[in-house]
Specification:
294 residues; alpha/beta; Purple Acid Phosphatase, chain A, domain 2; five-stranded mixed β-sheet; binds manganese (II) ion
């Protein structure tokens, strides 16, 4: 069914795809079937790695972005791919990025990826939100998130590739807090916080805690849509939409899905706002097979 002309397009937020192109294309086919071209897809990042078909996923996403119907923020795995394309990092035994690295278009993919944002700000039914791969600082306002994203983006997107190499080569553990390299780590890798400190590790016990628990205590007026934390699974809480349900991790102790959130575009019929709970419309595409065995 195609909605009548003039209606708002359906915004769709998809969790970590990680090279699971079959499931991603199944989602896109279902969306086309339901909405025609009247949808806008937002990816939380980690489109690539661990799964089998990275290039095909990137191509689908890029078509949407170039058609004005796609938004994609960088995840840690895109950053890893950028580092490999820049010759800064070896391909690890669990990396499956050969299809991109060996492509004749690899330099073009490097430029495209460097041009993506790390934070995107948007609005749903009048409520501001940010799209980010892993986390935002619990104290940040929506304007802070946007400003930090712009600072980090400027480092990644600069024309001088040696300057980009110098930026990425900095040790994220050693760098000064709130430097662009530290902020990049928080945006694409963080899971736990302890006051102002952050870590990519799952928080052990208090005062270590999930970043979003500290964020929620501030009663922010904006929403956060994120991914990155497959072992925590789907996370729906007021203001929060954590969408990584580990499609690529299917069979490693749980059933994997690709999850998409389709918020009500004109306010839900029961008066709920987009980031209230319960409310979400979720589409889940089951993983077709087990992808890796570590
Ligand atoms: Mn990630």
């Amino acid at each position: 069914m195609t909605p009548p002309a003039g209606a708002s397009p359906q915004h769709v937020f998809v969790g970590d795809v990680q090279g699971c192109a079959d499931e991603f294309e199944e989602l896109l086919a279902r969306l086309r079937n339901r909405f025609g071209d009247e949808f806008v897809l937002h990816s939380v990042g980690d489109l690539v790695n661990r799964g089998p078909d990275n290039l095909r996923v990137l191509e689908r996403m890029r078509e949407l972005v170039e058609g004005g119907r796609g938004h994609h923020v960088l995840g840690n795995h895109e950053l890893g791919l950028i580092a490999m394309l820049l010759g800064l990092r070896e391909v690890g035994e669990r990396d499956t990025l050969g299809d991109v690295l060996e492509s004749a278009e690899a330099p073009d993919w490097l430029d495209w990826l460097r041009g993506r944002s790390v934070v995107e700000r948007g609005e749903l039914s009048g409520q501001a939100y940010v799209l980010v791969h892993a986390s935002v600082h619990p104290d940040w306002s929506v304007a802070d998130c946007e400003a930090v994203g712009a600072r980090v983006h400027a480092q990644l997107a600069q024309a001088d590739l040696d300057a980009v190499r110098r930026f990425l080569r900095q040790d994220p553990v050693e760098v000064e807090a709130n430097s662009e390299r530290d902020l990049l780590g928080r945006l694409v890798s963080c899971r736990g916080v302890n006051g102002a400190a952050w870590s990519s590790k799952k928080p052990a016990e208090p005062p270590d805690e999930p970043w979003h628990r500290a964020w929620r205590r501030r009663s922010h007026d904006y929403g956060v849509v994120y991914g990155h934390w497959a072992t925590a699974g789907l996370h729906l809480a007021p203001g929060l939409r954590g969408l990584d349900t580990g499609c690529v991790h299917h069979g490693r102790g749980h059933d994997g899905f690709l999850t998409a959130w389709l918020p009500a575009m004109e306010g839900a019929p029961d008066g709920l706002a987009p980031f209230d709970v319960p409310a979400p419309v979720l589409w889940q595409i089951p993983a077709r097979r087990r992808y890796y065995f570590y």
